[in-house]
Design goal:
Layout: H1 2-11, H2 13-35, E1 39-42, E2 44-46, E3 50-57, E4 60-67, E5 75-77, H3 78-81, E6 94-97, E7 102-105, E8 108-115, E9 118-125, E10 127-128, E11 140-142, H4 144-147, E12 151-155, E13 160-164, E14 178-181, E15 183-185, E16 194-201, E17 204-210, E18 218-219, H5 221-228, E19 235-237, E20 246-248, E21 254-256, E22 258-267, E23 270-279, H6 283-287, E24 296-298, E25 306-311, E26 316-322
Parallel strand pairs: 4-11, 5-10, 17-24, 18-23
Antiparallel strand pairs: 1-13, 2-3, 3-4, 3-8, 5-11, 6-7, 8-9, 12-13, 12-25, 14-26, 15-16, 16-17, 18-24, 19-22, 20-21, 22-23, 25-26
Helix pairs in contact: 1-2
Length: 331
């Protein structure tokens, strides 16, 4: 109070009050600005459950790109390469991992990839073959080389993806949200890390790669065996699910998998109950040196009815409460 009185006496109350009001106004503007996304992009579920957004390439489009936090590199498909000339460039082949196979592909100059007014320039990537008919093929995959620049807010209520340049929006501090650490982890000779989230299945912790490019959550058989040896855990065949379950990968391959129902999965303070996951020894686990370790891929299905913010700059995944009234995903 003494400092305030001294300022009043020296400068005069009217000027001080005006300055004080201006300070409050500036603070209010800064707070409002923090809530405004730098980009807002509509998304839909397509191609058997993948989050898909409109993207322009070299100013043309929009084209359908799958959002994939398990892809270190944004890539395009052959159907887009027939529309635009993507010249080959010098350099070592790029190894692209799919759930079922991995391929070494020659690098090509793609150029500018843009969505929501935000762009990745001078992209050098690869062209992937289209999927076999009758499956429809998207035009590309939006990977971590683009996504890691932002805090990515996926909102199933509005079916939009919001991008923030300066970290997670203030909404993650609201009631009903929980935050959990994600660990950037480089596997093998990878130049860019993937992001690992720990999940608790009762008394054990299992690492999962955050992989929105997997439409369904997948665990390998070492993880299943470890769960089966854990007391107080119910892991049983998902009899109500499809009798012909399959996993699909980026290259259009399909393979049979086993479905199991896990009674309780907990990530941070968020719990999923009676969750159906696929059990499949994906080539991804082999390629990353994880074939003998209990591991999983945390897919887009976990978040269809929850708001999430992936704050890549601060290595945090924020998870909102379940939204029963969220729009049903439509392929």
């Amino acid at each position: 109070m003494g400092l305030v009185r001294t300022i009043f006496e020296r400068l005069g109350a009217p000027i001080t009050l005006l300055a004080f009001a201006a300070t409050i106004a500036l603070a209010f503007v800064a707070s409002a600005k923090a809530q405004t996304p730098d980009a807002e992009i509509p998304y839909r579920y397509a191609y058997n459950g993948w989050i898909t957004v409109p993207v322009t390439v070299n100013g043309q489009g929009p084209y359908n790109f799958i959002v994939d936090t398990g892809a270190t590199l944004s890539v395009v498909f052959e159907n887009l390469a027939t529309k635009q000339n993507f010249p080959f460039v010098d350099g070592e082949p790029r190894r692209i991992l799919g759930l079922i196979e991995a391929n070494d592909l020659p690098p090509r100059y793609i150029g500018r990839i843009e969505t929501g007014g935000h762009a990745l320039d001078n992209v050098v990537s690869v062209v992937i073959a289209d999927w076999a008919a009758p499956r429809e093929t998207p035009q590309g995959v939006l990977g971590l080389d683009f996504l890691e620049q932002y805090a990515v807010f996926i909102d199933p209520v509005t079916q939009t993806i919001k991008l923030y340049n300066d970290g997670a929006p203030d909404i993650v501090d609201s009631r009903g949200w929980s935050g959990v650490r994600i660990e950037p982890k480089t596997f093998g000779d990878g130049a860019r890390p993937l992001h690992v989230v720990n999940a608790r299945i009762r008394s054990k912790t299992f690492p999962f790669i955050l992989d929105l490019g997997a439409s369904g959550t997948i665990i390998n058989y070492p993880a299943l065996r470890s769960m089966l040896t854990t007391r107080r855990v119910s892991v049983r065949s998902a009899g109500t699910a499809s009798r012909n379950p399959k996993v699909q990968d980026l290259f259009g391959n399909e393979r049979q998998s086993r479905l199991v129902r896990i009674q309780r999965i907990k990530i941070g303070r968020t719990t999923w109950r009676n969750k159906i996951v696929s059990v499949y020894n994906s080539d991804v686990f082999d390629e990353l040196g994880l074939a003998e370790q209990p591991y999983g891929l945390l897919g887009a299905d976990m978040f269809r009815y929850r708001r999430i913010v992936i704050d890549f700059k601060n290595d945090t995944l924020h998870i909102g409460r379940e939204i029963p009234g969220a729009p049903q995903p439509i392929n």
